[in-house]
Specification:
The chain is of the alpha+beta class. The protein has 3 helices and 5 strands; from the N terminus they run H-E-H-E-E-E-H-E.
Length: 100
């Protein structure tokens, strides 16, 4: 199933962008609690060779131990994957609170 072309999903994400106008990364509720991250807080995603900053959307909808970056956050994807990344593979990242 290709989610990128789902009108329902697009509509739901447009609604979420009202609360997260700069985009968001979904973080599991339990993981966020362990990391001391609150909903709406700025976080840093650290990959092997790059890092990026986004806003945490804390939700139980994401499996513990994973994060979800919505497909339309192309700038965030480019920062983490670089110019050669195609967004189709899993990338290990570390999640940290962004320094104020």
């Amino acid at each position: 199933m290709v989610i990128r072309h789902s009108e329902t999903l697009k509509r739901e994400y447009r609604i979420l962008l009202l609360d997260y106008p700069e985009g968001f990364v979904e973080v599991n509720t339990d993981d966020a609690k362990q990391l001391g991250i609150r909903d709406g807080q700025r976080i840093r995603l650290c990959a092997a060779n790059a890092s990026a900053v986004s806003t945490a959307r804390v939700t139980p909808e994401v499996r513990s131990g994973t994060i979800f970056v919505p497909y339309f956050l192309h700038d965030l994807e480019k920062q983490i994957l670089g110019a050669i990344g195609d967004g189709s593979s899993l990338v290990p990242v570390r999640v940290e609170k962004e320094a104020a």
